[in-house]
Amino acid sequence: MIFDLHTHSTASDGSLAPQDLLERAAANGVTCLSVTDHDTVDAYASLNSSTFPGVTVVPGIELSTNWTGRNIHVVGLNIDPDNSDLAEGIRQQKLARLQRAETIAARLEKRGLGNSLEKVTLLANGATIGRPHFARYLVDEGHVADFRQAFQKYLGNGKIGDVRQFWSPMEDVIGWIRAAGGTAVLAHPAHYKLTNTRLRLLTDDFITAGGQALEVVSGTQTKQLTDKLNNLCEDLQLLASCGSDFHSPGNSWSEIGKFTRLPANCRPVWEHW
Ligand code: AMP
Ligand code: MN
Ligand code: MN
Ligand code: MN
Fold it and tell me: Does residue 270 contact residue 56 with C-beta atoms inside 8 Å?
């Protein structure tokens, strides 16, 4: 059984259409898939899960949130994508993404990097606009050599394109997930590069806000990290989740269905579904 509970499609910043993502999941032996696009459930409108009976599709989402000025991601799993509280939350997040895109574009323009908004909107093609769309713009216009450099110079942590003030607080985001009957998972805890003390503050606040699970495994990771997150998860009595955070084919470090196994002692998030 392979549960890949964190993936992206063209509804946000992934490069496969939802149905192609499902096909790739089936080909890679995934038995349970969640498409967790950034701040949208639009993928589910075009997903026909009956075409691959070997794969159970669990509706999900990855919500951006602002925790003490940091951009933290909360994955909602096993949600009702049509729930009205969640729909209202998503409406706010989509608006936040638009406002943020305008701010990022204005800042890039001030730096002499051209007027990106129209081109980025075309690149997103109806998807929620994210920094990867700006990265593509910067590469296409020859301002940077590649994606990595785009994030390093302009879009990554603390750079001019890293605009965080528009995201909703964690308790709101978790509230929408819970209202939609879902399980709230703290996504990729190691990505935030927090000290152990800060990470503990984050997980404490996450639990107080109604969070239920920790993404113990995100892609292929070291045993040291898996042990650390497994211990934290056990300590806090949280459920454990896992996924590839797949975005595009051809990324050797991230493939759908391929990631470090959850330790045997974990209580998996799907246990009570
Ligand atoms: P956003 O959702 O607009 O805040 O953009 C965050 C997304 O950008 C992440 O989900 C990744 O897909 C991508 N990303 C973040 N950091 C990097 C990086 N250093 N290089 C390439 N992509 C990145
Ligand atoms: Mn992404
Ligand atoms: Mn994320
Ligand atoms: Mn993700």
Answer: no
Residue of 101, 86, 91, 236 lying closest to 172 (CA atoms): 86
Dihedral angle computed from the Cα positions of residues 130, 135, 137 and 142, in that order, rounded to the nearest 10 degrees: 170
Please tell me the distance between residue 147's alpha carbon and the centre of ligand 1 in angstroms.
Answer: 9
| Ligand 1 contact via 146 beta carbon (within 6 Å) | no
Please indicate whether residue 151, judged by its CB atom, sits closer than 6 Å to ligand 1: yes
- pLDDT per residue over 163-212, tens digit each? 988 899 999 999 999 999 999 999 999 999 999 999 999 999 999 999 99
What letter would DSSP give residue 43?
G
Indicate the helix (H) or strand (E) that contains 65: strand 60-67
Token pair for 2: 């392979």
Helix (H, G, I), strand (E, B) or coil at 174: helix
Provide the 3-class DSSP secondary structure of residue 169: strand
* Chain segment 55-92, per-residue pLDDT in tens: 999 999 999 999 999 999 999 999 999 999 999 999 99
Asked whether 161 lines ligand 1 (CB < 6 A), one says: no
273 touches 78 (CB < 8 A) = yes
